[in-house]
């Protein structure tokens, strides 16, 4: 009988077996099935929960809690996690074989994508400075230094020397003749010849390069002659370049910044500005003392003896007014000079008797000339000494040292004015008296020097220290023109910048407060004659105030807010009186320093409320008060230009100005809002000014201090009020109540006789009227209508049909209330279910804790029993040892 072979099951049979095992349903134990009883059986209704498996459901819930709740309980109060990121570990559907195949596939894909380390990327194009390596043309000479060796003049050892020194015996060879050179001499000789050959070779190479460069330059000069297309290019008309092409070329060739062009920080800029101002102040002080470093200020006349050695001579005295020398080359007078900061004194003593013998005959004849020269310089010397005393003070000597750069021309050379200089006579040379033309030049140079010193003395200093008190600031700005005051504050800020020294920031904050006080004093005491100069001063100080406000923002907020509070307290004492002109300047300053478009601002918002109170409470009794209010309306317009905020006080005030220009009769009164009176007609233009040419229709600062109304003022304020209302209309055009806001304005404009005003004013007013009328015509009002109710249906006698019948009786409710009750019922059911699940989770966690506690107690008991057993064994061994000892005894 043949032996039956064991058949191995294939992998496909195993897969089919697994699927069949999964598809087969496990037979249910009838004792585990729970039948849910129903109180009322509905015929034909299928229920899903008629039978349940409590044991199976409880087991599934326990397994789910083990996977979720138990894992969270184990890792609570722990920050580390172990995550298995291997392929297939997170996907529980993959088998072990599928996981292995997926990992093997990923490794092969990674190895396939990896390039070889020797891959030079032939498909890539290498570039250098925007050009490919193939496009770069190099005209360097590729020849190396080794090529010259073929010519026989290289610096290496030649054949004869090698044969003689290395293979011919060298120093051991006996030449048999006297005077033979040694090996050392041969080496030195060889080195000298090698250096010589290298020098010759280098010289030949340099000559070759020079000839090559010369040939290149000559060839460039010959290119225009060789080029045959020159005539064709000249004949073709040049096309006009477009603006776009011009800008593109300018941008292409524009100088670009490099890494080294680092932007300077604010601290570095402040430091450089301070050093620059200090250097300028140093130069100014030197010019005041007569030391001129500028070449333009030096005299153009130079003497033959001028060596530019920087020597400063003493002041010219009455006795010796010119430097002269004797036959031996020595000076005839004492010279005190400074050379490189060192003082040099030269004393040349002469024999007085010889001078008297030689010059005795001529001294009497030249006395008149000497006195004349002294008189010509007397006034000049006094003026120069007075100027030096003002600069140096009383601490210096009365004889002041003045830098003299008077270069005397050669007597033989002609002068600048064309006249020849006369050679000084023997008497003039012996008495050290310069010629008349030289005296005039010296006098002109000294006068020019004095003029430059006076000019430097009148200049403003370049460095200023911060004032300690407000009085010191007033003293510094006193009697200074407006532009000088701005320059003084600017230089003061640059010399004491906050980044230059500690404490400068607080001192600059004090300077900001002092400037606010200065503005307050300046405008509180202003009059009609001084208001313009005060405005010029404020205009020059505004950039510096703005810079100070940004250097210390918190101080600026607090200082300006304190000023506004103080002015408001003064205003509350007399609410119907206009404040001073200084308050207007503070309001204008606030609009420049702070943002006015915010919804709320700690400085702008109180100022805005303050301005509205002035417009509503202060009545315009005269021309100055009316101009005051109009100035505030322009500020309100500036404040609300970005935020488009509605200001009823400003529009009412402008409407009141229009009301004052309406002719009124005693029978009919036109209503107007306060603070204007319904009977006021101060701005009514009686005469006809339609033909007048109004060149300037702007408001003037002098109007704030005037009281009487004139026709020119009436035209100007009417024109500006209409323009302000037009701008307000543009800002508030998007509001739905724009027509109602400007309805009084349109009413007043239609009642004003515009034919009496100039043509320019008539045009502006007519434009505003047409605009307001157009807005009123295009306005479409949507009336608020109550929503129509649906008619009630007739009550019919029909049976009540309940869709769902369960033993409970439901109330008759609307659809919304029924849905709400259903949602509440579901909420209660879900709440009960959540509480049930929470209780079961607690029971599960309690069982886990109990099992852990039992396990730990069991381990502890086992350890204790083990310790007791080991201790008993030790005690047993100890007792046995004691018994043995007793027996021995």
From TrEMBL:
The keyword Transcription does not apply. Residues 352-377, 385-396 have a biased composition (Acidic residues). It is found in: Nucleus, Nucleolus. Keywords: Nucleus, Ribosome biogenesis, rRNA processing. Residues 1-30, 136-156, 346-440 are annotated as: Disordered. GO terms for cellular component: Noc4p-Nop14p complex; small-subunit processome. Residues 10-23, 397-415 have a biased composition (Basic and acidic residues). Its main location: nucleus. InterPro entries: Nop14. Residues 416-433 have a biased composition (Polar residues). One of its GO terms (biological process) is maturation of SSU-rRNA. The keyword Lipid biosynthesis does not apply. Involved in nucleolar processing of pre-18S ribosomal RNA. Has a role in the nuclear export of 40S pre-ribosomal subunit to the cytoplasm. PANTHER family: NOP14, NUCLEOLAR PROTEIN 14. Belongs to the NOP14 family. This is Nucleolar protein 14. It comes from Acanthoscelides obtectus.
